[in-house]
Amino acid sequence: MASTSSVIFVTQNRGKADEIATLLGGVPVRWERLPLAHVPGDDLEAAASGRVSEAFRRLGAPCFLENTGLWVHEHGIDEPPAFAPRALKDVIARLGGEEAFWSRFGSAPVRARVAVAYASGEGTPRVFSGELVGQVASKTQGHRRLRLGPRCRS
Predict the structure, then answer these.
(1) How far apart, in whole angstroms, are the C-alpha atoms of residue 26 and residue 107?
(2) Is residue 2 part of a domain?
(3) Is 1 part of any domain?
(4) Are strands 126-135 and 109-119 parallel, antiparallel or unpaired?
(5) CATH number of the domain encompassing residue 55
(6) Distance (Å, whole) CA 75 – CA 102
(7) In whole angstroms, how far apart are CA 100 and each of 86, 92, 93?
(8) Sequence-distant (≥ 6) Cβ neighbours of residue 55 within 8 angstroms
(9) Domains identified in the chain, total number
(10) Do strands 29-32 and 7-10 pair parallel, antiparallel, or not at all (unpaired)?
(11) pLDDT reported for residue 82
């Protein structure tokens, strides 16, 4: 079992675990990289709940994870394409690079959703979700590797 003085965050992305540790301001975060089953579909909450349940069963300790999706509304399309943020590099590559991406999607409406799930073994996992609505930045912004910074308005 995990120590009660730390929390277990399950993700494939070490940088994301480091960011969570920073946000939690001194609470020790133990990073666990587990290959978890993919849950198909756009229901982020159901996917997060199923994946954190699997992580809890495998770790035998309370843990949490997050599941994020982006929906970019291209002009003239009723159902916007949805993809995981980690797939954004592939989308940009398929379109022919960042300039082609900005030409097609710059300033397009975007919806970013996140679901954070926690499993402790007591009942069903708790899931918390949120959403930001805004626009895809019209050009590359930011200081990190991918440097995408959607301008969001609530």
Answers:
(1) 37
(2) no
(3) no
(4) antiparallel
(5) 3.90.950.10
(6) 14
(7) 18, 8, 9
(8) 10, 32, 34, 36, 63, 65, 119
(9) 1
(10) parallel
(11) 60
Q: Using alpha carbons only, what angle is made at residue 52 by residues 38 and 25, rounded to the nearest 5 degrees?
A: 120
Region 90-102: mean pLDDT is 84
- The DSSP call for residue 68 is E
Per-residue model confidence as pLDDT tens digits over 99-142: 888 888 888 888 888 999 999 988 899 999 999 998 877 766 65
Helix/strand/coil for 56: helix
pTM exceeds 0.85, yes or no? no
Q: What beta strand segments (E) does the chain contain?
A: 7-10, 29-32, 63-72, 82-83, 109-119, 126-135, 151-152
Instruction: Decide if 59 is inside a domain.
Output: yes
Residue 37 falls within a domain, yes or no? yes
Structure tokens at 139: 């050009």
Predicted confidence (pLDDT) per residue in 9-65, tens digit: 999 888 888 888 898 888 899 999 999 988 887 789 999 999 999 999 999 999 999
3-state percent helix, strand, coil for the chain, nearest multiple of 5:
30, 30, 45
CB atoms within 10 A of CB 60: 10
C-alpha–C-alpha distance, residues 4 and 93, integer Å = 43
Range(s) of the domain holding residue 137: 7-152
